[in-house]
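Researcher: Here's a chain I'd like modeled. Treat it as a single chain, no partners, no ligands.
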Amino acid sequence: MKAQVLPAASKMSFVTFHLDEVVKRLRWVMLGVMLFSFANTLAGQPPVFWRSPEHAIRFDGLSIYNQTNTKFEFFLGHGWWPYILTSAVYFTAAFLLVSVLPKRSALTLTFSFIFGHFYAGANWLAVRWHLGMQGEIMYAFVLAIMTTLMAFAVPERATFALKRLRWVAVAALLIDFACTLIGQPHSYWHHPETVLEANALSRMFLLHGWFAYAMYDAAYCLFILWLASALPRTTAFICMFAFVFGGFSGASNWFFYEWRMGIEAPLILALLFSIAVVMCTFSPVSDLEKSSGFEDAQTLSST
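Model: Modeled as a single isolated chain. Structure tokens:
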């Protein structure tokens, strides 16, 4: 039997870059967040670092060799050029990896990188540059704008994705609120004036006791749900992503700063949030949901 010779064009290549438009756009957001964290890491170093790299610091202001909350800063202590070289390899590998994975896996990994590096950049703003929570909030909204414009440039299925994303935002805030109550000192339950909280608004309610704080949390969640339905679609997406990023950062701060669980805890939380965002926002819309009339009604109200 004569062997069949396949044409060269039909041979399988070892590396195939998928053409999904959402992944192609979001990977640039991912790279931008990585570069922002990278730039702050170098810009935030003390002057002595450039002569003696062993004096390098991390985003919480401590030495990279401090055993409290160890971080992945292996090469920074060897100088700026090894750090730049290894970061370039890391960024390239991450960009290529999300470019070849199947869509669902690529989106999950992309958001994991975005959440993780957002947390690092937000802490450089809050701690090193003394912008506090205002710096984190501003960064969360900037990133939410970038994510919305890149992920939903094409409005197909966007309205139903918003309906799902609002529940991710509510869950993010509830996780942050739960961590806030769990993280209170024992004295708080009898003496609310001993409250431990950086957010001025949350602290005001916590000072009136846990029940007042719980009512505030419930009202906050209802407010998020109302925003998702009342605002124009693009604006609502930006707000929902901002709440997700904010809730993630708030909860991660409890794991990292208060409970001293290292950078691994925020990274695990980043992965869980990424899975939730991808499953709820980028999963296919069923025929039943399409025929429910929800999307058409919301599209009319958003115009």
